[in-house]
Each structure stands twice: as C-alpha cells, then as structure tokens.
Amino acid sequence: MIAWQSVGHMRWGWFLLSAAVLILLPLVTDTHTPTLLLIYALFALSLGMMWGYAGLLSFGHSAYFGLGAYTYAIAVINIGESTGPLLLSMAVPAVVAAVIGAMMFYGRISDVYMGVITLVVTLILFKFMSATAGDAYAIGAARLGGFNGIPGFLTLNVPGYPELSLFGLPTYYISVAALLLCYLLCRYILARSFGRVMVGIRENEARCELLGYNVPACKTAIFTLSAAMAGLAGCLYANMAEIVTPAVFSLKQAAEVLIWVIVGGLGTLIGPILGAMVLSYVKFLLGEQTLIDNSLILGVLLIVVVLGIPSGVVPALIRVWNRYLRRKRKREAQGAARRRLGIPSQEHP
Amino acid sequence: MDYAGVVTLEILYMIAFLALTSAGLAIVFGMMRVINLAHGEFVLLGGYATLKCSQLGINVYVAMLVIAPLLVGIVGLIVERLIIRFLYGRMIDTMLATWGLSLTLIGLVTLYFGPSAMSIPAPIPGYQLGTYQMGGYNLFIILITTALFAAMWGVLRFTRAGLIARGAMQGPDVVAALGYNPRTVYMVTFTVGAALSGLAGGVLAPLTGLLPSSGGAYIAKAFITVITGGAAVISGTLSSSIIFGTINQLVSFAAHPVIGEIAMLALAIILLRLMPRGITGRFFRDGT
Fold first, then answer.
1. What is the spatial distance between Cα A237 and Cα A164, in angstroms, rounded to a whole number?
2. Of A5, A144, B80, B94, whose Cβ has the fewest other Cβ atoms within 10 Å?
3. Considering Cα of A203, then A206, then A212, then A217, what sign does the dihedral take?
4. What does R_g of chain B's alpha carbons equal in angstroms?
5. DSSP of A144-173, one letter per residue?
6. Among the listed residues A195, A188, A185, the one whose alpha carbon sits nearest the alpha carbon of residue A4
C-alpha cells in the first residue's frame, strides 16, 4: 500500500477522467482510428519512459514495435491460440533488447553510439524482413513473405477459447486497458527506488555509479521493459491491421515515434501519449489531402520543436500554467494583505 | 580469372561508393562533431540537380562535377545559418533537427519532382571483361573517388585552409589560437561538407537512379562508415570503407546482396562495441 500512496505525480482525478472518456468514446464515434491512436500512444509511452526518464535515446525503437508485431503473427499462425503469442510478443522484443542493451551498456558506449547501434538494428531487421520472399523463409507454418509481409492470421481471442475471436470493439477496449495499465506501471516504477535511480542516471551517471548503483544493469533493465511495452504495442497493431509488413521497421516509423515523444515532451508520461495521439490524428487528417506532403510537415515540426521548445509542448504548457498560478496566488496574497491593513487596492485609486 | 577480376572490381566500386557518399558527412563529423542526418538528402539533392541540368540540356559532367556541388553547398550554407549554428555542442539535438530537415527535404523533393523514380542515362558505355558485361561508369566512380581523396589529403596536408581544418579537428580552442573564429570555420566546413555530398549525389545519380525516399539508403551506410571510422577524416573514412566494402561484396557474392548488407551492418555493431571511439580513435591517432 505504501508504494501506491506515493505514486509520484499521479493525479488520480485526471487519470479516472481520461479512463472514463476512453471507455465511453465508442458511444459517439467509430473505434478504428481511436484504436490506432491508442496503440501509437502506447508505443510513444514506451520510448518516452526510457528517453525522458532514463535519458536513453533509442533511434530505432521501431525495431521492438515491429518485432512484437512479427512475433505475434508468426506465433499465432503456428500455435493457433492467442494467449501464448501475446505473451511472446512482449518476451521476444524484451530478450532482444536485453541482449543488445547489455552489449551496449556494459560496453559503456556513449549516447551517440547508442543511437547508431539501435538504428542499425532496425535497419538490419528492415533489410532482412524485406528480403524474405519465397518458401525458403518460413518459421514453422508462417511464411515471412518479404516485402508483402504476413497477412491473414488469427486476431486475439478470449484466453483459452480460440473460437471466441476479439475484433473491432474488443480490440479498442484491449488497447485502452493496455495503455492505462502500462501508464500505471510506469508511474509505479517511477515512484519506486528503481525509478529514482533511473532519473539519477539521467542527471549524473558518474554520481550514481559512485553511490554504488549498478548503472549498466539499471539501463539494461529499463531498455528491456521499454522494448516489452513497444512489443505489446506492436502486437496490438498487428491485430488491428490484420497484416504485418516490413514497414513497421522502417526509418519513417522510427522517426515518427521520436517526433511524437519530443514534441509531446520529455520527462513526462502524458506528453508522449498526447504527442502520439494528436500528431497521428493530424497525419490522418493530412492523409486525406494531397496538397502538402506529410513528411514536410512532420519535418518542419521536428526542427521547430528542437530549436524553439526543446523540452516539448506539454512541459512548456505546464511551466506557463505554473507561472500563471504563482502570479495569481501572489496577487491574491497582496490583495488580502492590503485588505487586512486597510490600504485601498490599486484598482480603485 | 575473369570472375576474380569482376569480384575485385565490384569490391573496389563498393569501397569507392562508401568513401564517396561518406566524405561530406565525415568532414562535418570530424571537424564539428555534428552528425548530419539530412546527409542522405543532400546527396539526393545533388542527384536531382544533375537530373534537372541534364533535362535543361547542360553537359552532364558539368552538371555533376560543378553545378551539383555548388547548389548543395549553398543549401548547406543556408541550413547552417538557419538551424545548425544554434545547436553546436548539443549532439543529440543536432541529430534530431537534421532528421527533421531530412523529412522536410524529402517532402520538398516529392512536391517538386513527384514521388516516382527517375533516372539519368549513364554517360559511359559498358565493356566486356571475358564473358562478363561490366558497367564502364563504375570505373569512373572509382577514379573520381580516388582523385577526391587525394585532393582532400593534399588540401589538409599542404595548405593554410588545411591547417585550420586540422586545428578544428583538435578542437575549437586550437582554431581560436590560430587566430580564426571557430564559428566561421564551422560555417565553411558545413558548406564544404554539403558540397561534397552534392558531388557524390551528382556522380552517383546515373548509377543509382533517383527516388525521394532513397536518401535513407545513403545515410545508413555513410553513418556507419563515418562513425566506425572515427574522427580522423581521411584515414578513418578510408579504413572503414575498405573493411565494409570488402565484407559487403564478398558476402554478397557468396550468398545474396541483402545478406551482404546485413553482414556489413552487423559488423558495424561489433566494431563499435569493440572500438567505441571508432577505428581512428584506436589506431592511427595522429592521422588526418
């Protein structure tokens, strides 16, 4: 119970309000686009947790998203029941990230080189998956299908009952649950000592090390956790799209998630979530017109944010709001003091 | 025997390709510690400039060797003034901003040239090597790359500008001690780096074809070549180009071109793990 009482900056009111809105949303709108937005939000949350709090920037986080999607598709074709594949879609990216993370962090590689290595891993997966056309490339009964990807696999079902398929509205609610649970998990971690150490590493790695914390182990752990969350997002994405193609590993996907996180705001959890939702919705709206290319807008946005508000939109708004609150409180305090002393207020000279 | 010749030429071509596409990025990284993720699009712009010129009826060699570098150099200058100069010393932010720039340029190129692939006919015909048909243009690229690196070495080694550039590699203090403003040196460096990327794009355009999204293919290879090479521009770029080009082509011939690329990328990860400061951070430390 103690841990739950001190869940960092957890604002239960806002949390419950958002949950209620998400639960009631299907009453007013179609769930297809909202499901996609939720999945992207989860993906952004996974990177935001790692980048914003531990200061570890993975340039190719789409590797784990894509691995989750591919793992689910391959496993469900071979197994036929979705509970195992769902768990595998988190386990496989986690294991891959643990291996790569351990290799990087125990090798004490600096942030730029970490960027290179994570990007190269994504490129390898993209190249490999794009080249797997033909019967020679199959895992069990699942043909990898090269550039066309894997179509037509079973979607999630009620655990233990393969014939009770969950699709459409249930996928939406599963995505809502996944996002809310992962958010709570992140808050919980941030409130525990592990979360504090993580932030400590971001602020001053040498000091954390000298205080006796095992920095490489911590970094590997958070990288693994983040990859598992990205994998879950990938699994849900595969379920919604009903096809996985190598595009999940592409540089464009890798760039997009970075943009969502940095525009939303580093060092917050809600920033990446909102960034992903708003920006992908804008992209969705822009996709319906052909006047201006999508990449142009995303690119300009990224430049403007890095140059203008490097901390991201949400932290900047919070700062503005706090300043407003401070001013207001100061004014009220002055007003109260004047009244107490019988000085007429300045508004009525 | 003919087959050995083909393999050797292909390896040489791959080394030249890597060295040529990395040169601009390497100069900017070596002197400014800035990683320009829009490098692939700079290369691409050089290609499109050449295409536009050849459509307008300008001699293709003039287009690729003069106009493309000039034009992309000017783009580089504008980018340095508008974006890069605010971000010196913030490596990750520079990478993010230039990634944004890369997306912007892709968008602009798509707007102007359309999303479909375009090509320029190779100005040099193929030739016969034993029973194999070889591209004559590949030899031209090997030649140009050799000339370019010889010229770069000459400039760095024997001229005043080269001295300042080598000072810049040591650090901004050294430049200042030589009596120059590091900011100005950086501006010129970025412009020259962009011009070299434009040159690479122009020269390679007849061979690779042009597609708005194909900058990504250059940046990935150039990126690992430069980072693995380390901070010394010439020896670093050449040594990692030789390693990666050889591995890529040998594995490609033995298995499959895609496996060759994957082998190259995997090797890059291993090399970075073993030598986190690049090849020249470990060997030839005093080189240029």
1. 19
2. A5
3. positive
4. 19
5. --GGG-EE-----BSTT-TTSB--SHHHHH
6. A188
Picking from B84, B103, B112 by the largest number of A CB atoms within 10 A of its own CB, the best residue to mutate is B103
CB nearest to A307's CB, from B86, B110, B265: B86
Closest CA to A116 of B217, B31, B213, B273: B273
Residue B279 one-letter amino acid? I
Cβ <8 Å between A109 and B272: yes
Confidence at residue A111, expressed as pLDDT on a 0 to 100 scale: 78
Beta strands B127-129; A138-139: pairing state = unpaired
Task: Tell me the C-alpha distance between A154 and B253, whole Å.
Answer: 39
Binary contact (A111, B216; C-beta < 8 A): no
How many Å apart are CA B247 and CA B261, to the nearest integer?
9
Question: Which run of H or of E encompasses A139?
Answer: strand A138-139
CA-CA-CA-CA torsion sign (B140, B145, B147, B148):
positive
**pLDDT at A345 > cutoff 70:** no
Query: For chain B, what are the domain ranges?
Result: 2-213
Which pLDDT band, with edges at 50, 70 and 90, does A96 fall under?
very high
Radius of gyration, alpha carbons of chain A: 23
Q: Spell out the domain ranges in chain A.
A: 2-287
Element (H, E) at A244: strand A243-244
One-letter identity of residue A81: E
pTM: 0.84
The percent of residues in chain A predicted with pLDDT above 90, rounded, is 29
Element (H, E) at B129: strand B127-129
- Distance, in Å, from the CA atom of A158 to the CA atom of A171, rounded to the nearest integer, reads 11
pLDDT tens profile B68-104 = 999 999 999 999 999 988 888 788 888 889 988 998 9
More confident residue, B279 or A217: A217
Instruction: Write the ipTM.
Output: 0.81
